[in-house]
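INFO  loader      accepted 1 record
INFO  loader      residues=229
INFO  predictor   begin
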Amino acid sequence: MSTQLALPLGLRDDATFDNFFLSTNQHCVSALRACASGEGYPFIYIWGQQGSGRSHLLQAACHLATQKNRSSVYVPLGTPELTPHILQNLEQMNLVCVDDIDAIAQDKQWEEALFHFYNNMRESGQTLLIAGRNPPQRLGLNLPDLVSRLAWGVVFQLHPLSDEDKLAALKLRADQRGFALTDEVGQFLLRRCPRDMIQLFALLETLDRASLQAQRKLTIPFVKTVLGV
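INFO  predictor   done
INFO  writer      dumping tokens
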């Protein structure tokens, strides 16, 4: 069963492994798939810059775990209303995905709670995935024991996409949404719009809705009209 409704932020429906463009991150994604299925490492730490797909992959792991009839929970630490109490008894879950660990750096209560939770997950034999913007040693954590725990397991860096990869990722997302994105329009978006993949995917969704409403294909003149560029 899934406990997503117990948290203030659930899973995005489109956050799946199938629509994540792999590029040079194949080994990381394969390892996360195995974890979600209950066949991989007991602990993985992943890190990468904003827009690299950290949150997408953690949520994808939860979706896959649910498909495999495994209990899972996604804990986004960047959500202001969360308190360390949220970790209580989560070691009973088959898979726990803790996102945005950077958000609690130098918070003594949170750091100690995460340290004990890591140990509880290890003792329970369940799977823990944690993600942040930086490797464990550069998170700015004050608790040395927590840093060492995070570095104990397998650590993956999510490598940023090249422009060619970003275009391929946009075309993949467009195809999965049921419309065609030409190279010409995709390259226009990369030249004229924010290059962060989160923002690019949001723009793609906006364009998809606009094209459906206007019953028009995505051309550069139409894109300029919709985006005001």
